[in-house]
């Protein structure tokens, strides 16, 4: 097998793991996070002076510290590449290296003593021309223990949806009666119509986690990633962004499932520019996208948005017409509605029982029909709660006066 080609840091992309780079570690520190635990973070530089952040989890810290000492050139072979996100990023590279159990670290024949310092002038700092998400100057790393992040009334979409379901329930804790209601036939409305329509520029400057709709045209494919997940380059009038679609939604764009495109092979692709015809044919088409603006987009300025729904312009126009028709419809005939039996609460059952009793008394006044011919009025079931249950009363049949 021929040796792997030599790569430079600026060549690294997430679409594969078989990378081979000659680098020197110029800085390292340990970092503690609530979810990931302890990790080793490093700044790596190659022969061109390009820099990238690298990290490894707690289980590999000792090995990496031994095999990748500071200011020594090494060859790093086979590693994951993931997006570099968040505030206070130590390099301007769009991605970062993640060292895994498959990563190999060996000696390198490169010998360059350059410290690869990148100094920033005070004038540039004072002018405010620098990107605020990147660190400049000296980096100080500290651990944060016994601290909490308190959020007042945080936006939690899942919680809001759950509360909406609860608002449709009368929250009854006891069953004390049966009430027959009429259920009106309601045509189901597309839930995505309740979310606002935004432009690409508006979602790029979003400050809240939310869902919205965007109409955009595909102008290319993001080949930094493998196409097993469809990464699209889209634009509207004057702005561009990136969107990521999973198989269920990507199928609507390319017309088939991802498994059919890669023919069941899970081997890494050799050239991300060689895309299947089904994917390249999507360029130039316009769709209506259901967009999820996530925490990564709001807090960490991730420029790729997850798509949860896709419509063609014809499909969405039809959905809008149907929704407008539903909104303009008159209420349906109550006689044709479906009967629904629900259980009422203790408080409501007492009220129904009292109303039923009063109604029975009112209708009995002035009636001339013999009691033997009348139909009995079936009262609503009495309350059977343990706290309000009445004791049974024993009835004694009275003797007739003529038998005395």
List its traits:
14 strands; seven-stranded mixed beta sheet; alpha+beta; five-stranded mixed beta barrel; 404 residues
Characterize this entry briefly.
It is built from 10 helices and 14 strands. The chain is α+β, with helices and mostly antiparallel strands and 404 residues long. The strands form 3 sheets. The protein has a 7-stranded mixed β-sheet, covered by helices on one side. Strands 9-10-11-13-12 form a 5-stranded mixed beta barrel.
Overview of the molecule:
With 404 residues, the protein is of the alpha+beta class. The chain is built from ten helices and 14 strands. The strands form three sheets. Strands 5-6-3-2-1-4-7 form a seven-stranded mixed β-sheet, with helices on one face. Strands 9-10-11-13-12 form a five-stranded mixed β-barrel.
**Rough outline:** globular
* Largest pleated sheet: 7 strands, mixed
- Residues in β-strands, percent: 15-25%
Average pLDDT over all residues: 75
Give the SSE string.
Answer: EEEHEEEEHHEHEEEHHHEHEHEH
Strand order of the largest sheet: 5-6-3-2-1-4-7
Number of strands: 14
Structural class: alpha+beta
Element layout with pairings:
Layout: E1 20-33, E2 37-45, E3 51-57, H1 61-67, E4 73-77, E5 80-83, E6 95-98, E7 104-107, H2 122-127, H3 157-166, E8 178-183, H4 200-204, E9 210-221, E10 230-235, E11 240-245, H5 247-254, H6 258-262, H7 277-280, E12 286-293, H8 295-299, E13 304-312, H9 313-328, E14 338-343, H10 346-364
Parallel strand pairs: 3-6, 11-13
Antiparallel strand pairs: 1-2, 1-4, 2-3, 4-7, 5-6, 8-14, 9-10, 9-12, 10-11, 12-13
């Amino acid at each position: 097998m021929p040796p792997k080609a030599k790569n430079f840091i600026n060549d690294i992309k997430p679409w594969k793991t078989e990378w081979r780079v000659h680098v020197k570690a110029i800085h390292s520190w340990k970092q503690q996070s609530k979810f990931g635990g302890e990790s080793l973070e490093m700044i790596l530089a190659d022969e061109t002076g390009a820099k990238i952040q690298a990290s490894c989890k707690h289980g590999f810290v000792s090995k990496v510290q031994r095999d990748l000492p500071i200011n020594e050139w090494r060859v790093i072979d086979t590693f994951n590449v993931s997006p570099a996100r968040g505030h206070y990023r130590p390099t301007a590279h769009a991605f970062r290296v993640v060292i895994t159990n498959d990563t190999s670290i060996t000696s390198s024949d490169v010998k360059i003593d350059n410290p690869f310092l990148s100094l920033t002038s005070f004038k540039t700092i004072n002018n405010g021309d620098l990107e605020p998400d990147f660190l400049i100057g000296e980096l100080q790393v500290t651990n944060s223990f016994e601290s909490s992040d308190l959020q007042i009334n945080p936006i939690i979409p899942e919680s809001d949806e759950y509360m909406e379901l609860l608002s449709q329930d009368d929250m009854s804790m006891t069953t004390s009666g049966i009430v027959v209601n009429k259920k009106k036939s309601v045509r189901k409305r597309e839930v995505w119509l309740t979310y606002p329509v935004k432009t690409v520029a508006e979602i790029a400057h979003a400050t809240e986690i939310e869902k919205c709709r965007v109409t955009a045209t595909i102008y290319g494919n993001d080949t930094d990633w493998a196409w097993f997940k469809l990464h699209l380059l889209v634009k509207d009038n004057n702005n561009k962004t990136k969107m990521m679609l999973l198989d269920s939604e990507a199928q609507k764009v390319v017309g088939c499932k991802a498994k059919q495109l890669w023919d069941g092979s899970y081997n890494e692709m050799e050239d991300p520019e060689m895309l299947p015809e089904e994917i390249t044919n999507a360029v130039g088409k316009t769709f209506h996208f259901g967009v999820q603006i996530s925490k990564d987009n709001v807090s960490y300025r991730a420029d790729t948005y997850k798509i949860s729904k896709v419509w063609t312009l014809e499909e969405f126009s039809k959905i809008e017409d149907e929704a407008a028709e539903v909104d303009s419809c008159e209420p349906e005939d109550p006689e044709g509605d479906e009967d629904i039996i629900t259980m009422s609460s203790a408080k409501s059952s007492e009220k129904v029982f009292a109303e039923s009793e009063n109604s029975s008394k009112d209708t009995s006044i002035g009636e001339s029909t013999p009691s033997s011919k009348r139909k009995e009025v079936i009262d609503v079931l009495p309350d059977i709660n343990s706290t309000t249950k009445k004791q049974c009363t024993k009835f004694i049949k009275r003797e007739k006066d003529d038998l005395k």
